[in-house]
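Input record, target 12 of the design panel.
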């Protein structure tokens, strides 16, 4: 009998993984997962997915993580094609860090509204108001804004990045909540903030909703993302990036958690902590993260559309702050 090839074994293992974890899914998803596995091999492609992606998309991904982890994974891959399942700034960062690769988003309609809250002209104006002050931009920014920045950071390493600078005054854009969170740990520096915010974390994750969940589950610990408002962070036991939350819950003896971030993050939290219970905040959804579907992942592999492109000079300039962010590494 002919021995099965490595490729067919990989397709089989992907399908089995999907059946085990997602037995509730439609048979259509299992069929698509098989098709995606075959196309990945054909294209020498890797699928990267953010922790807020739909469960079935996470299941076909080669790597699932937070913004920093995804940037790091993008720099390490030997694949020719990166299929990026997340939002615009994440896919752009993957291209900036790997300009020789083909970076494709299943849909370019998946954009981060916070990233659009600061523009290159606005940042230039802010820099002119504070001459000589270095700029740290959250990775949730456009490539053009990164090109105007000295450092990038994610929620995992924002404190570490700011602390690495010797200057006492720093422009921090665009997330005001993250900036205020960093300021709690960096008392000897003044952060010049920008009024940007994440609509999901700012408007959907409130003290009222978390307190209601806490009344229903008094033994549960509240964990939140630092994009939440300061008063929300005040009532939490822990604020961390999505990957930081995974680490915290894994290492904690606590058995129940109220998760103050996008609902889908509970998928990995539950999968990796089967003995623990996670309660999500009703309505805490990032609509843009939900735009990527399994069908669109398959289409992206077939057509290599929507391909991410950026002007060469922007890539060169934006690479400097992004390289610094990756070099500084995780902070939580
Ligand atoms: P993480 O880097 O913590 O995954 O967060 C990204 C993001 O967009 C949160 O809204
Ligand atoms: Fe942007 Fe908020 Fe969605 Fe994260 S959750 S991608 S910050 S809109």
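The sequence produced for target 12 reads:
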């Amino acid at each position: 009998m002919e021995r099965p090839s490595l490729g067919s074994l990989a397709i089989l293992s992907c399908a089995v993984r999907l059946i085990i974890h997602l037995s509730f899914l439609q048979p259509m998803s299992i069929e698509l997962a098989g098709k995606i596995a075959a196309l990945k091999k054909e294209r020498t492609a890797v699928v990267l997915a953010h922790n807020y992606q739909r469960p079935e998309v996470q299941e076909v991904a080669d790597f699932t993580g937070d913004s920093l982890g995804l940037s790091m994974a993008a720099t390490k891959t030997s694949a020719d094609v990166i299929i990026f399942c997340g939002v615009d700034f994440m896919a752009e960062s993957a291209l900036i860090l790997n300009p020789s690769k083909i970076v494709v988003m299943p849909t370019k309609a998946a954009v981060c509204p916070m990233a659009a809250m600061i523009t290159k002209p606005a940042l230039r104006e802010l820099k002119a108001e504070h001459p000589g002050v270095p700029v740290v931009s959250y990775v949730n920014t456009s490539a053009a804004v990164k090109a105007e920045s000295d450092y990038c950071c994610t929620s995992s390493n924002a404190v570490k990045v700011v602390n690495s600078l010797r200057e006492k005054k720093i422009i921090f854009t665009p997330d005001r909540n993250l900036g205020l969170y960093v300021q709690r740990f960096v008392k000897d520096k003044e952060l010049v903030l920008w009024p940007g915010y994440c609509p999901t974390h700012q408007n959907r994750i409130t003290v009222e909703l978390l307190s209601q969940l806490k009344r229903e589950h008094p033994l549960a610990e509240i964990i939140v993302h630092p994009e939440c408002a300061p008063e929300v962070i005040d009532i939490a036991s822990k604020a961390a990036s999505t990957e930081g939350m995974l680490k915290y819950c894994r290492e904690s003896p606590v058995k129940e958690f109220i998760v103050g971030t996008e609902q889908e993050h509970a998928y990995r939290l539950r999968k990796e902590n089967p003995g623990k219970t996670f309660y999500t905040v009703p309505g805490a959804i990032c609509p843009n993260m939900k735009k990527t579907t399994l069908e669109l992942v398959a289409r992206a592999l077939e057509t290599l559309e929507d391909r991410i492109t950026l002007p060469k000079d922007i890539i060169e300039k934006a690479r400097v702050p992004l390289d610094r962010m990756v070099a500084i590494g995780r902070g939580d």
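The first strand starts at residue 45 and ends at 50.
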